[in-house]
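User: Modeling request: complex.
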Amino acid sequence: MSELVMYEEEFRRIDEELKRLYQLANAKLVFLVDKNGQLISSAGDTHDIDTTALASLTAGNIAATGGIAKLLGQKEFSILFHEGEKDNIHISLVANKVILVVVFDQRTSLGLVRLRVKKSTQSLERIFEELDKKSSIEERDKGLTSPFSEITDEDIDRLFG
Amino acid sequence: MSFINYSTREINCKIVYYGPGLCGKTTNLQFIYKKTAPEQKGKLISLATESERTLFFDFLPLALGDIKGFRVRFHLYTVPGQVFYAASRKLILKGVDGVVFVADSQIERMDANIESLEDLRINLAEYGYELDRLPFVIQYNKRDLPNIVPVGELQKILNPDNVPSYEAIASQGMGVFETLKDVGKQVLKELKKNY
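Assistant: Request completed. Predicted assembly structure:
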């Protein structure tokens, strides 16, 4: 099983990139989710939005669309766009690994969102490439202390009371 | 696939409830949702048909507490049990860290149990997982119904490897948390082993 591991530095860079995208695309909300539905990071006004549920449903959406693509002999549909009455949502794959989601309204346009997403995708792809490298080096050298190195079976038992 | 975030100090794991149609997967999640403190849970999302049959999945995020400063979160999913939702069922298994198989104890559902367990093995294999190597718990549900198969026989047919198993009446909550705790512990111990 391959775990997605996120380190401080890459997390900060991802966060900055999402904030940049949020501002430059004039979006309402930007977030990044892994393909299994776990929220990685977000930018924008999230206080009255259940981002955990949003992340899981977005991943479900990408998974279902990916299933349709395969049935049609396509590798994947890399961009999804849903138009709402007020808000719209633009969903795209980054490095075939994580999902970038932009929620926006009439203050911006689909064209601008697409353009900015394209630029951010390139930056994010670089970050994830480096993250991959770093994880495998850490894995090999066991350099960074894993949270599990200190966790005992008793700790785990205690968590479940 | 678990997600370990050193920056936010979180460990996220995915647990999938699998089993034949109407065996009580959603009922398990509903009971967990009902009995968990508000600060420990997120919304229970159900993508269901009008007749309340699961169409795609149910989803419940749970934060059980901290271990050594890391917040441990479990994302619980159910699959749609009905045979013709095979494609959706497979999608949910992607990245799974632990599996609960909910068996329907009724005599007339034995074939469905066997078929669903086989379907689980095949779908996992397509992602390169082996059920025997995953954290895995079997739950014998509906023990309150009159026409049920004795546990010994269920064990023989569905659980020849003798993985942890629990009798349950999910609608009343019996066995629900025991099942969850067991699979949760197994998932964390597995992560610890591999990490």
